[in-house]
């Protein structure tokens, strides 16, 4: 008789797991049932700001695979189904009030926004940007209110991307950030470069500002954001707030939750001590390869990898998820932004003593048409010179150079050894000393001092 | 009394050595004398095709530092000086007939074109493209002859770059290549993609063609290229031929020449057994980190690194050149081309048993404006799955992705481990599975088969 796999959450992680399991085991051997609260499956949440901003025309473009397409591959996806309980004893889940037996279970419940308890935060015209439905809601508000003034609260990835999207739509945009600079995943000196570019694009960046609440009009629409630095009028308010792993279901079932707040798994994405229970995506915690500590990093690329790993293992293969080094990239207006490894405050927290080096360099040969500059900052361990982290802010070709540093980090290279790396050189692509090598040289000098 | 450092050849390697030595030791401690046959110092030879093609306006833009600028930093550069002998016993060199004593010697004589003995090859209007002076000569011929038809012989880096440059100048261009496809530093299946793009740009690509000679007119100008596939009329002929280390001087002095034809050095760029004798740049051989064999790879980026290493050591510091992995990138018309590690014929020659995988993927999220495709081919060792090499041909963002593979090669990663790499993901920069990860997955599957 066929085993039954139940997947809770049918986005990147869940459906990667389902697809990989299906590739290895057919429906006579493995029945796959996936429950999804929303109406969409397998979509690119990271693409939502570009769709709202008009760079991506159609919402459908963001959907990699529809429920119907999954069904055609013998994966029974049930949208509009909310799983409310997992019973590990009986090996069943409850979805929309009905009980369903499982042999294997993949928990892929994703992340949830961390919403402050500001008065008015549930008002109309106040939007998070986590799901495709959120994107629909933003578009509806923009149209319904003929919105001209937007306030974006929070200057992280989503906040910065949404500020740009709304400027593209012709709105006046104010970005409110509690810290002294936006993009706090960068060190302050690098975040300042981002603030400068946002301001160049006429985004009104207000830093060091604490939001106190939102004032609603008689119809319940948010009209004003109240802060310790005054009030900001708004036709629409976007919450660029962080997320945390969505784990109530797992916690209630008695599954282990780690110190970072995510579900604990082993390298194969199994929940330890619970045969046949798997977890993947934004709801889990993973090993950070630089700190060697557990961490929760909500990113589509990790979710896809983890889901794939779970699915291969469920399918009878062998795969592992070996951890992360903390790589992230984004674009803010004309600026490319990237980081990997540890920023200064993270290195301190992890107990590393470190030196830093910061350089500016051309992205391509300085004499080649279209040359731009980028700034690279590197952290290296004092004494050993081990690379600990890097941040890049700059023009075209800046962001993906972080990958070189991410692979170096993965392999625990020293900045001194990195100065010898055999990176591609030709005038349309790089100066004869690639900026990464220039940064490694500066960091190597800093270590020797 | 000050020591004297003599540098033979004042381009990338030689002047990097001189500059680094000068940074660490001032003129009271170290006198530096550099001899250069030509009139230019420290220029980007790789930029010449872009200058001829008109993308780079001014020849001066290619010069990083003029002789005068070097002199201002207490480096006595003598252009128009040809060194004709090195006397290791007396520790002196002969330049323009005069003898000069040295304590330390850096040999940076570069590469020399491998010229076939075709009749007519020394005719007027027949040009190599190695030096700035060659570039001047090409421009002079184009102007003087009001050239309309160009024949480029050899479809390697220089040949392809020059074909594009001449098309940009409005010439009809025929590219003759002996092999079945251009870019033989790629495997044939990847080289075909390059041929297709060149043809799309109206370059007449003729492969499998052996040149027999050039016919000159009464004034000594080359007018026709004779081949086993017929005759090709030409107003200008460009030789995209290979180079080899220029080592007569070193060989005559009794210095060791290795199996690849380059001067032998240790990791600090010292010529072993000869105290105070250093060599760097296109004239040396280096360790290939994948084959573990000596190899000679003429590239500005290696020359700069090696010169820097020699200079730091001469200056009293410590630095090493730890070898290469065979990375090279170029652009042909709208196509980005890259390789690292071993291609199939090299892997065979080195005794590796290997599998290959080839994938096509988007450079950025498929739904993001301007998405293009790229093809990545990976070679991995049979059994162990160790990455052996990679080739990339494709649109924007294709070439520099080779750096990720170069760093993975450097660290002897397996393709299986590479599937977990934490590379940057955001829709403007990458699909959620970066093409490198897609290729690693395909290669990992191939290894397991």
UniProtKB/TrEMBL annotation, chains A, B:
Database matches in PANTHER family: NAD(P)H SULFUR OXIDOREDUCTASE (COA-DEPENDENT) (PTHR43429:SF1), PYRIDINE NUCLEOTIDE-DISULFIDE OXIDOREDUCTASE DOMAIN-CONTAINING (PTHR43429)
Record keywords: FAD, Flavoprotein, Oxidoreductase, Redox-active center
Record's keyword annotation contains Oxidoreductase: yes
Pfam families hit by this protein: Pyr_redox_2, Pyr_redox_dim
Cofactor: FAD
Domain FAD/NAD(P)-binding: 4-298
The Pyridine nucleotide-disulphide oxidoreductase dimerisation domain, residue ranges: 330-432
Organism: Cryptosporangium japonicum
Protein name as it appears in the record: FAD-dependent oxidoreductase
Family: Belongs to the class-III pyridine nucleotide-disulfide oxidoreductase family.
